[in-house]
Amino acid sequence: MTTAFDPLLAQKIETTGIVAVLVVDRVEDAVPLAQALLKGGIDVMELTLRTPAALDALRTIRRDVPEMVAGVGTILTTDQVARVVEADAAFGVAPGLNPRILMAAREAGLSFAPGIVTPSDIEAALEFDCKLLKFFPAEPSGGLSFLKAMAAPYAHLGLKFVPLGGLNALNMASYLADPNIAALGGSWLAPRNLIKEGAWDRITALAVEARQIIKTTRKK
């Protein structure tokens, strides 16, 4: 087994160009949230394990909105890896790189993207065949210019990055235009307060805006 992403799944994420990163407090919000994002053209999401509702929200989406590719983020323990797999997550993500988590993901056959922010992180990820990497926190760490410099020595290895942290509709185009970038982590698409308010039309509007920028930038 390998923690590398399934190639078709990695291509799906790159084609969509953005992963909606979400904090869900109530399971009943899961389906209308997924539907609001789909209506706006975004069909990949990451439910973060920051609330007790996250895994039940995932199960609900996988059952009732199967066209949404739903993964799980903020995986910090090996026990969480097991529970994420049991809940049928499409993929897993972590904010950092923990070899124990990567080993558990490998053994479970879970596509996994660890978080990286240094060349040493990249090399540790390569030990587990991880080539789709989360660059976090993106903007506070130096942004696109830092990522391009850091990624340069590894360009021949075909690495792709998903930056998250400090991104929004105003700065996303510059990232998307760079060949190092597979997709963006879009935490601004459905902020926690809008989910709590049930502001589905506003979430759809944010998704539409992001998809238009992606289409314009990547001509897809």
SSE map:
Layout: H1 7-16, E1 18-22, H2 30-39, E2 44-48, H3 54-64, E3 69-73, H4 78-86, E4 92-93, H5 99-108, E5 112-113, E6 115-116, H6 119-126, E7 132-135, H7 143-151, E8 160-163, H8 172-176, E9 184-186, H9 192-197, H10 200-218
Parallel strand pairs: 1-2, 1-9, 2-3, 4-5, 6-7, 7-8
Helix pairs in contact: 2-10, 4-5
Protein described:
With 220 residues, this protein is of the alpha/beta class. It has one domain: Aldolase class I (TIM Barrel), CATH 3.20.20.70. The chain is 44% helix and 15% strand. It contains ten helices and nine strands. The chain has helices at 7-16, 30-39, 54-64, 78-86, 99-108, 119-126, 143-151, 172-176, 192-197, 200-218; strands spanning 18-22, 44-48, 69-73, 92-93, 112-113, 115-116, 132-135, 160-163, 184-186. Strands 3-2-1-9 form a four-stranded parallel beta sheet. Strands 6-7-8 form a three-stranded parallel beta sheet. α2 (30-39) packs parallel to α10 and α4 runs parallel beside α5 (99-108). It is globular, with a radius of gyration of 16 Å. The model has no long low-confidence stretch (mean pLDDT 96).
